[in-house]
Amino acid sequence: MHLTAPAILVAARSHGETAVIARMLTEQSGLVAAYVAGGRGRLLRPVVIPGNMVQAEIRAKSDSQLPFARLELVASRGPWLNEPLPAAAIAWVTALTASALPERNPYPTLYAALGGLLDAICSAEAARQWVEALATYEALLLRELGYGGERPAIAGLGQALEILDRQEPLIGRYLLADTHADVLAARGLLRQRLARMIS
């Protein structure tokens, strides 16, 4: 395997003393896991943050080997991780994507939608401006994996929150049923913070 492509980093797990196993969503190769040497070091720690856009060079000698990756930062989500709502939204959508998608199956529509959603979260003045995109992304993920119907028609914040609530059991039952980590806890935190906007 030899792949050089832009990627959205969706998960990073410590490995050994200084390395990281990064999971990245690419447009043409889908979700790819790779070993990043020095990923916990001073230079790469700000790069291997879920939500970041990176330029990835991924190499493996065989399909059965975990690839090695060299990453270069393209766009950082780090500045928004100090803001409670954007941080919760970034944590949820990256954890959901990393947990739900199978490895190395291309989902170009999801790649574009996730990039657009992360951009919206980080550029909007208020969460009201990206909650609809969040509900649409969840619906798209369900649909792309064979568990959903049409794109929901959303008129306003209240309806977007209702759709998020309706989608939660489907996500738990179909997309996250086999995960060991409690990924839905990230969604619960986000939903609590969104509820404060209308109370």
Strand content: 15-25%
Give the oligomeric state: single chain
| Adjacency order of strands in the biggest sheet | 3-2-1-4-5
Average per-residue pLDDT, rounded, comes to 93
Number of helix segments? 5
Uncertain segments of ≥5 residues (pLDDT<50)?
none
Q: Specify the overall morphology.
A: globular
Task: Please give a structural write-up.
This is Recombination protein O N-terminal domain-containing protein. This protein has 199 residues and is α+β, with helices and mostly antiparallel strands. The protein folds into two domains: 2-75, Nucleic acid-binding proteins (OB fold (Dihydrolipoamide Acetyltransferase, E2P)); 78-195. The protein is 39% helix and 22% strand. The protein has five helices and five strands; from the N terminus they run E-E-E-E-E-H-H-H-H-H. The chain has helices at residues 84-100, 108-123, 131-144, 157-175, 184-195, and strands at residues 2-15, 19-26, 30-36, 53-59, 68-75. Strands 3-2-1-4-5 form a five-stranded antiparallel sheet. Helix 3 (131-144) runs parallel beside helix 4.
Key structural traits:
five-stranded antiparallel β-sheet, 5 helices, about 200 residues, globular, OB fold (Dihydrolipoamide Acetyltransferase, E2P), alpha+beta
Structure summary:
The chain has 199 residues and is of the alpha+beta class. It is built from five helices and five strands, in the order E-E-E-E-E-H-H-H-H-H. The chain has helices spanning 84-100, 108-123, 131-144, 157-175, 184-195, and strands spanning 2-15, 19-26, 30-36, 53-59, 68-75.
